[in-house]
Amino acid sequence: MQTLSCGRYALDLSRPVVMGIVNVTPDSFSDGGRHHAPEQALAHARRLIGEGAALIDIGGESTRPGAPAVSVDEELARVMPVLELVGALGVPVSLDTRRTEVMRAALATGLVDLINDVSALEDDGALELVAASDVAVCLMHKQGNPDSMQHAPAYGDVVDEVGGYLARRVALCVDAGIARTRLLADPGFGFGKTLAHNLALLRGLGRVGAAAGVPLLAGLSRKSMLGAITGEVDPAARLGASVAAALEAARGGARILRVHDVQATWQALAVQAALTADAGDAA
């Protein structure tokens, strides 16, 4: 059984699981402001768990393309009250942050089980801080920063370059004392990538995973690449495209799917799993 060691929990990744998104930001690209208040965030997290989320991801800074940075104090003010509530719901809690100061304050509560870092622990002190804890960490690839990353992203071979970066970050973590059983890698769909880059990564996800050598997390839900394919401008109306992308990511080896629409994704994965099991029985 493939298991992720994450803080208070051991998460079974023998088949893909769903991570439910709880944004506590006023400017998230899809649901900004809807769950900003702690009580709203708690109710949303409970609903996502009821729909099949195996873990909850809480974020207090929007990292959508063009998003302005927020202060450490503002990010902490957004996430800390929500952690206190959601941390008691009985599933692993992931904190989506790239700042060491935010990680330190959140880890001190004992209610965070996974650090989901779009900067792959590149912030000063982040690697050492996480290494000294027992939480899991997701290392994501991005080219540039949110305020400018979509201006002119360029690669030679995007699959090789993303896989190589993730492999190097994993090696640094292991050298720092973080067990591989605590590590995840994320190719960073939409983070400094064109539509062509994103599609190449999705097609080559198996190569990325093989290079990283740890389980993959994929976040494609409602993203602009899906709008570019379908012509759908409203992110919330990209359900069908999001589910299709999630299934393709799972087929390519992703073990955690970070999504807004938990119920639809969970149901699709259940059908995929049943078909795979039937194929195995027939063989």
Automatic annotation (TrEMBL):
Query: What does the UniProt keyword field contain?
Result: Folate biosynthesis, Magnesium, Metal-binding, Transferase
Example GO biological process: tetrahydrofolate biosynthetic process
This enzyme catalyses: (7,8-dihydropterin-6-yl)methyl diphosphate + 4-aminobenzoate = 7,8-dihydropteroate + diphosphate
E.C. designation(s) = 2.5.1.15
Transcription regulation as a keyword of this entry, yes or no, is no
Q: Which cofactor does it need?
A: Mg(2+)
Q: Report the GO terms under cellular component.
A: cytosol
Q: Which top EC class is given?
A: transferase
As for family, the record states: Belongs to the DHPS family.
NCBIfam families tied to this protein: DHPS
Q: What name appears for this protein in its UniProt entry?
A: Dihydropteroate synthase
Say which species the protein is native to: Crenobacter intestini
Task: Show the taxonomic lineage.
Answer: Bacteria, Pseudomonadati, Pseudomonadota, Betaproteobacteria, Neisseriales
What gene makes this protein? Answer: folP
